[in-house]
Amino acid sequence: MPKTNVKKMLFILSKATLENVYAAFIMANGARMEGIEAEIFFTFFGLEAINKSKLEHLHVATVGNPAMHMPTMLGGLPGMEALATKMMKKEMEKLDMPPVEEFLEILSDSGCKLWACKLAVEMFHLSEKDLIDDLDGILTIGDFYNRATEENTHMLFV
Predict the structure, then answer these.
(1) Where are the domains of the chain?
(2) Of 92, 113, 8, 4, whose CA–CA distance to 50 is shortest?
């Protein structure tokens, strides 16, 4: 099997829907398992994935999500989001996927860096005490971009 030339993956997570959060976490975890450095930058609504009071209450997006294969109007009906979220969590449990909080700990323990966006933290009137303990810090987007100076670094917006 050929060895990858990728040395570092930087993920930007801007939405804390359950499907976006797990996509970023799975890719970052996969990178770490392959010996690739990984970092996640949580910005705008992505901050909910590292907000202590919200991270275990993330939902599946049923409205405006073409992969749901249902009319937008149906996705907006009361209870549809909760039902879709419950079904997805049940399927993830069958695959032994850890809950969000535990997955964040796994990522941090594996060496994945977890960063909050300074602008978004200020915009949503959050402080470091509102965010997970495993957070590596609060950065400006410029500071985050400066973490991409090494050759074979890739950035992915989720």
Answers:
(1) 8-157
(2) 113
**Closest by Cα among 87, 11, 89 to 50:** 11
pLDDT in tens, 35-65: 999 999 999 999 999 999 999 999 887 666 6
Q: 152, 5 in Cβ contact below 8 A?
A: yes
**What confidence tens digit (pLDDT) does each residue in 94-149 have?**
988 999 999 999 999 999 999 999 999 999 999 999 999 999 999 999 999 999 99
As a 3-state breakdown, the chain gives helix, strand, coil percent values, each rounded to 5, of 45, 15, 35
- Integer angstrom CA distances of residue 141 from 19, 43, 118, 153: 24, 9, 8, 16
At residue 8, what are phi and psi to the nearest 5 degrees? -150, 140
pTM above 0.85, yes or no: yes
Look at phi and psi of residue 44 and say left if phi exceeds 0, alpha if psi is from -120 to 50, else beta.
left
What are the structure tokens assigned to 92, written together? 């993830």
CATH number for the domain formed by residue range(s) 8-157: 3.40.1260.10
